[in-house]
Design brief:
Blueprint: E1 2-7, H1 12-23, E2 27-33, E3 44-45, E4 48-51, E5 63-66, H2 70-83, E6 87-89, H3 96-105, E7 110-113, H4 119-136, E8 142-149, H5 159-172, E9 176-178, E10 183-184, E11 191-197, E12 202-208, H6 213-226, E13 233-235, H7 237-240
Parallel strand pairs: 1-2, 1-5, 2-4, 5-6, 6-7, 7-13, 8-9, 8-10
Antiparallel strand pairs: 3-4, 8-11, 11-12
Helix pairs in contact: 1-6, 2-3, 4-5
Length: 249
């Protein structure tokens, strides 16, 4: 059984991950972590003490899942490097310097860092690759990306929207634009649309998140992937889901 640690354990994503991990026979949650000033620190969930001390990782954890804020993720990353524990990072909005630290850590431990842990969104990434390549072979394409999220989201455009743009641009050789500007409203979990407009037709892909459980499910798959004897390295959800094995000519 895989011994799992969750940082940001009392947050919305942390609670989702914990709830699903309890139902998954592959995992045993052995450590719950929160920031030092969190009111739940030192309290218990199902007999597991919520700690702010990363020393709980020592000898008691096989893999850690982190969905916090960039500063918290850097603390988790440092602790995982210190204790030689694989880490799954679902935090978005990392700076270039922070992303570099993730890459450096991956030289020491196995790391998965993705802009979106959702299985559905990662399938969307693969389909975007296919469309970008195939439409670019036949006609000029106008590529537009639109996204919506809740009012609490700090980064805009979202990491997922940026990844969609990067894939579309790389495969088509054409510039993608964010149009209109990202919407931040209410408690929208996350909606993404990418549109390929040609002189002859319009092709549109749309993904709507209905429940944060989709991110938690993907994160658990990623955690299972990292504990299967992986060497140090920076892995992706495309590898976790074996989508990287689908070669698009």
């Amino acid at each position: 059984m895989i011994k799992l640690a969750i940082t940001g354990a009392c947050g919305r994503m942390g609670q989702k991950i914990y709830s699903l991990a309890k139902q998954d026979k592959r995992f045993s949650v052995t450590a719950l972590l929160e920031r030092l000033d969190h009111p739940q620190v030192n309290k218990e969930i199902d007999g597991i003490k919520i700690s702010s001390d990363f020393c709980v990782l020592k000898d008691n954890v096989d893999v850690l899942i982190d969905f916090t804020l960039p500063e918290g993720t850097m603390q988790s990353l440092e602790a995982c490097v210190q204790h030689k524990i694989p880490i799954v990072i679902g935090t978005t909005g990392l700076s270039a310097e922070q992303a570099k630290k993730v890459s450096e850590a991956a030289k020491i431990i196995p790391v998965i860092y993705g802009t979106n842990m959702s299985i559905g969104v990662n399938v969307l990434f693969k389909i975007t690759e296919l469309i970008g390549k195939k439409l670019a072979q036949t006609t000029a394409t106008d590529i537009a990306i639109y996204e919506e999220h809740h009012i609490h989201k700090k980064d805009a455009p979202s990491g997922t929207a940026k990844t969609l743009a990067e894939i579309a641009e790389k495969t088509s050789g054409q510039k993608a634009r964010f149009d209109p500007q990202p919407l931040r409203q209410g408690e929208i979990i996350g909606n993404h649309r990418i549109t390929f407009e040609t002189k002859f037709d319009t092709l549109e892909l749309y993904h709507s998140a209905k429940d944060r459980a989709m991110f938690a499910l993907g994160a658990l798959e990623a955690a299972h992937f990292l504990t299967a004897g992986r060497p140090a390295g920076l892995y992706t959800m495309q590898q976790v889901l074996e989508l990287d094995k689908i070669i698009i000519q």
